[in-house]
Write a structure and sequence with these properties.
elongated; Lipocalin; eight-stranded antiparallel barrel; mainly beta; eight-stranded antiparallel β-sheet; binds 2-acetamido-2-deoxy-beta-D-glucopyranose; about 550 residues; 32 strands; 4 domains
Length: about 550
Amino acid sequence: MAAILKMFRLRFGGILSRVYLLLSLTVYSSYGGCTFPAEWTGSWFQSGIPSLIAINSTHIQMKGECSETESFDKFLLYDRAYDCYKCMVIHEKHKYVLQYKETYCSLKNSLSSICEEITGDAPLYSMFRKEPSPVPEPCPFHPAPFTFTYNRGSHDCVYPPSRAESCTDDSRLLLRYMACPDVPSTESNVEELVCLASWKEGSTRYLVGQISQVQRRNSIASDEDTYRCFIYKAQHGDKSMSYIIAQSGDATCNGLSSPSDGSRTMKLTTTDDEHNRCHFPSWIVEHHKWFSLDHTHQYHFTTKNATLKIMNTNGTYEEKRLVCHSILEQKEKKHIKLVAHVTRGCESGHVCLTFHRRGSSVLELQQGRLWETPQDACSDHQIPPYITLITTSLTPTRCPLIGRYSIINSLADKRRRRQQINIDESVNGEGTSLCAVGGDVGEDETVSVGCGNAQDTIEFKSTCTSTVYTCYGSWQEGGRGFLIAAPVARSSTHPRTFCFMYTSRSNDTGGNMLVSLSGVAVSCDRGAVPGRHGDKAYNLTSNG
Ligand SMILES: *[C@@H]1O[C@H](CO)[C@@H](O)[C@H](O)[C@H]1NC(C)=O
Ligand SMILES: *[C@@H]1O[C@H](CO)[C@@H](O)[C@H](O)[C@H]1NC(C)=O
Ligand SMILES: *[C@@H]1O[C@H](CO)[C@@H](O)[C@H](O)[C@H]1NC(C)=O
């Protein structure tokens, strides 16, 4: 009877489960009753079953309702549609992975006698939680990157070596398969593994993850195509770490018996010895957090001073992780040039980084382009742009160019500014800029640097307004001066810090100094010509 029922259900299971649902809604009667663990509530994927399996506290869809339970893993389920009972032995391997064995549905009997029908070689089914959505966990293979060899049933694909790289999100690993000319059935391909669940049974370690084909990311891959189960073993070498991994051929954990026996096997070996990683120097990491001048990026030094995390702070979350790989040259408290391994999303490679110390709270960073090998990273002859970094706790320093100056901006500039004021006025209505309208704009503007007791401030003054900046660091480079300064009265919406760049020369007639000055809000842009470019530009003449 049970066997006939089983066959019948195999053929018509889909339709019948719907009928069953209807029946269980309409025909209500009380049952002995037991409950499943609350954590199981949700929808689960099982290979071979087209729709997800819903579990709640009392029911497992397509199986029945909890009727009796014993020793936490044995359940007697009542199938109302067929008025029969089955035993399920369910093991929670991980909060996202349930594995079970079951009997056919049979006539009512005690839990123990029905459950006895389950034999040792009964098939083991795996269910993976889909809803509520699982949160991926860190992959158990580290430290990435690795090189690896793989085998898909014939020979090992050893040369050229394949590579596995970490992503900034450590629950993802990028597997770059290479084709081996001497091994048919190998092809180059990039897969991304998202690690969902890992657990240990005896001495065997399991992992369940989802694999996606990076090149075909836009096509929708089914759960059957993406869920894979792994058995793995770590091997500690003298200086390296290896992982021997077997991967299931389908979306089950069946057919895996040892780390070297699966539909596909791999051997990952670390390529980088963590202990040999270099460290960023103390004159950089003495402040753990740095910001770009406009505060849109945060630079955070972590993990034993060997890792730099660069994050966007403007809402869009994007993180880059740079690990010190090798130091090429350095001069204590002056500059350092190094190669770093960089990871962004699942992309990685090597970049050349040069840090210049410009004061106790100011750094400049030059970051080269992405190269695959560390050897190439600093061999690039292009000069990368400078990024200015500041700490949150800036220390005022003495300003350069101490003295009083008059602004001698060009007529064109005055005209432009007058027009701007007229526009402002028509926008703002009358009254707001009476002062500007009355005066000859710009004519009597002055700049005083470090005057009186305040050697660390610059004041820009016109008849109408005054803006005071505090100096936080300055240096000279190639005939140009650089100064990092921020307005004293910083509005919270515009916490702008400027890089002022200037050139100075003495007037032909002697005595007076001519200074061309530009302020740039984002960085000390070497392409901006002082007095001409930038967010602010002035030509100044000293008043003795
Ligand atoms: C569990 O699911 C069954 C079948 O879908 C339904 O009849 C029952 O009311 C649900 N129980 C709870 C507690 O939600
Ligand atoms: C990191 O650098 C800081 C500042 O130089 C130092 O105090 C700290 O000990 C360093 N940490 C490690 C793990 O090297
Ligand atoms: C400053 O002088 C230079 C030429 O010496 C001129 O090109 C530039 O436009 C001037 N800048 C301003 C803001 O007037």
